[in-house]
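Please, why this fold?
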Amino acid sequence: MLSVTDNKNGRTTDAAANPMPTQRTPRDWTLLLALVAMWGSSFMFNRIAVASLPPLSVVAGRVGVAAFVLISIVYLMGKRLPPPGKAWWPYAVIAIIGNAVPFYLITWGQQVVESALAGILMAMMPLATIALAHFLIAGEHLTRQRATGFAIGFLGIVLLMGPAALAGVGGDALRIVSQFAVLGGALCYALQSVLTRLIIKGDVLVSAATTLLIAAVVVVPVALWLDQPWTLAPTGSSLAAVVWLGVGPTAIATILYFMLIRSAGPSFMSLVNYLSPGVAVLLGLLVLGETPQVSAYFGLALIFAGLAYSQSRAARAP
């Protein structure tokens, strides 16, 4: 049986003894929609950032800004980070699996992979999450209704992003590797969401700050060594994109992410990856002047239908 240690009071509890609630509260839905808004915008800002900056520098700037923001808030509120030692290992695991590795894989892959195809590849994350959670999280059973709802949502993603995006699957060696990089990032997020529920305890703000500090310590020196950012000439829009990625989709979103995982579980949180592409399409319509195809609206309808079905009372029954 899995057991976890509460870093706040030192107690050890069985993961199976703390099953997920079956009812979703208005707070859970609010946290989910806030994450959708922040993470849905990150695809567009990633594209802006890598226009004049190497992917590793974008990731380093993103986690560096986020760590600085959260650590400042922690100390301004009179809180403190955990003392060095064994208490840091859960945060190190989440920092590497959930921040450093997927941020780089996705940012690197998006140099070649279009946003539409990236959205479809990222939609594999909820499917992987419910499979992992079925075996590791009490109360996260993979029922037929839940699996059907997630599958309907995935079909909605394909329609929303445009079936033609699937035609971009494959290609030359670099394109294939780039697609696997984005998919690898999605799978990292799936594993992170389950591990976060199992091993991250204590104060949410302190947990988020500690995790991002470790991610920054890992990524920033590597970026300084390989990219030598002082030799680069980034545009103002790329720098602004990196700052926003650090403050919004990383710092603030990490706090909301830990809160949602703790209250509603990884499977519910993973629905973000089905709803975020809708934000990307909306931003394309309002900011970039793009005109979605008719299939996009059918795709949105399927996503909402799949979401409703997967979260129905019958779907959550063991």
In short: The two ends are 19 Å apart (CA to CA). The longest strand covers residues 3-5. Residues 1-17 have pLDDT under 50 and may be disordered.
